[in-house]
Amino acid sequence: MELRTKRRLTNITIGLLFLFSGIEYAVILPTIWAYLQTLDAEPYFLGLGLSAFSFSGLIASPIFGHVSDRLQRTKAIILFANLFEIAGIGTGAGACIFGYLTRSTTTEERATVFAVVMAARQAGLLIGPGFNLFLRLCNFNLGPFKVNKYTSPGLFMCLMWIILQVIIIFMYYDLPLVCKHNSQRRLISAVEEEEPLVHDDDDVNYAAAENNRYGSINEDEKSRVPPTNEVDGENSTVDDYHYIPNGHIDEDCKTNDNPFHNFSATKEYLREEVVVVLTAQFITLFNQTALETMVTPITQKYFQFGELENSLMYCICGVEVIAGFFLVRWLSTRFTDRVILAVGLVMCNISCIWCLIFLANPKGSFAILLSEFVVGVFLQILGLPFVAVSQVSLFSKVTAEKTQGFSQGFRRSIGGLATILGPMWAGGLTNNLYVMLGVMMGLLTLLTIMMILSYSYLVEPPPTQISTVNRSMDDDC
Questions:
Q1: Which residues pair with 231 in a beta bridge?
Q2: CA 361, CA 359: separation in Å to the nearest integer?
Q3: How many domains does the chain contain in total?
Q4: pLDDT of residue 177
Q5: Can you list the alpha helix ranges (DSSP code H) found in 359-458?
Q6: pLDDT tens-digit profile of 456-467?
């Protein structure tokens, strides 16, 4: 089979994996509150239920990412993770995939690639509620188990993941990564083409593309790191080494080298720009999951929505989110990640202020309440793609390429912690929305201040002579 065909099949499989993860979330979320009510559960159990899924993923993501960095293979890891998808461990496979996408794309196209991958998951969120339209009609016994509108989503997703497991076995390939010298990225092959997830053009001269990129470094980047440095009386140009944030040298990258040689977690993740991006990951996911948790109790209390109405609502929201991701995909070719992140934060702040004013203590007629609710949800969803894509893309650029699997796993663990705490926080405060939304507003204000103060650092470090950095790393070791 030709290499380009293998790449196409692999990319399709990646898209399906994210699509199924979105479907899983969408078929369960509209019915979980009603199911808990059949068990006479208190409202805080909703938060506990939504948080439980994220806990095992919080631990699994860095582990799977670390293994993928070591082995430079992802297929076996994804197959293993899918066996445990129902327990949440399978979410760790996402770290491996983001690491793979980082190593197989240039920095210019990375935000575009991530936007398409995330849009695949949102497509699942859009499609998922449609399955609930017939799953809610299930009413039969499967051996000793009762299958109804509350338990059928779990059985349905079990079948979906089995199908995906077969697809991965026959369609996903561990493609060889070819190392390029003189400040070039690891690329899958010299023969490239435009793919649905990873965009490459035929016969591209990557050396010229990279040189052009480094030649167009913006003024902020130039002010941070000079193009040449003098070490021990010798001048070294940008072509001698490729700057890697944790001190790895990319001049002689062999696939069997230990990617964690001279690795320092404190030097890697406690830099200002990395802290800001990880904070953005935590706060936005905390607020998003908290709002998702409060939505179904509010729609039930004020609008008498059931599982059908909630499913249709999530379906409409999915259309908006997908449109937002493709808008970000287009904007990412014209604006930097930090600009897109700033726009997303502005939208999130406006949304939270709106909810604090109009939804914390709803008053008025049904039409007025519904209008206020729709505006609040629309604003929140509008800002989500901007923040989600920009912070993932920016994180991949300010952390080392060789350890992307582990770094992406660490980032997803931070997000997993947020998706645990967010529903737990909101689940216990559905009757005290001023406190819940007030804390969310405070977190967004903190993140906004951090971004303003660190705005000049939220760029990809330019390539530079790093002998001094590497020497200091060796001394520390």
A1: 234
A2: 5
A3: 1
A4: 60
A5: 366-398, 404-427, 433-453
A6: 999 877 654 333
Structure tokens at 390: 């920009």
What six digits make up the tokens of 48?
């506990």
Buried b (16+ CB within 10 A) or exposed e, 321-332: bbebbeebbebb
Could you tell me what percent of the chain has a pLDDT over 90? 13
Burial (CB count within 10 angstroms: exposed 0-12, middle 13-18, buried 19+), residue 218: exposed
Q: Give me the DSSP letters along 7-58.
A: HHHHHHHHHHHHHHHHHHHHHHHHHHHHHHHHTT--THHHHHHHHHHHHHHH
Return the bridge partners of 110, or none.
Answer: none
Q: Residue 427's closest CA among 325, 318, 298, 316?
A: 298
Pairwise pLDDT comparison (327 vs 110), residue with the higher score? 327
Contact 308, 130 (CB under 8 A): no
H/E run at residue 99: helix 93-103
- Token pair in block for residue 129: 């509620």
What values do phi and psi take at 141, rounded to 5? -105, 140
At residue 253, does pLDDT exceed 90?
no
Question: Per the domain annotation, does 7 fall within a domain?
Answer: yes
Q: Give the Cα separation of 177 and 401 in Å (integer).
A: 13
According to DSSP, the residues that pair with 187 across neighbouring strands are 178
Look up the CATH number of the domain holding residue 324.
1.20.1250.20
Residue 231 lies in a domain: no
Mean per-residue pLDDT over the chain, rounded: 75
b/e burial code for range 231-253 (CB count within 10 A of at least 16 → b): eeeeebebbbbbbbbbbbbbeeb
Sign, Cα dihedral of 379, 442, 111, 312:
negative
Between 223 and 138, whose confidence is greater? 138
What whole-number distance in Å separates Cα of residue 429 and Cα of residue 436?
6
Is pLDDT above 90 for 342? Answer: yes
110 domain residue, yes or no: yes
Interval 150-195: pLDDT, tens: 888 888 888 888 899 999 999 988 876 644 443 344 433 333 434 4
pLDDT of residue 321: 83
Residue 465 falls inside a structural domain: no
Q: How many CB atoms lie within 10 A of CB 370?
A: 15
What count of residues does the chain have?
Answer: 477
Name residue 298's amino acid: I
Range of the structural domain that residue 161 is part of: 3-176+267-457
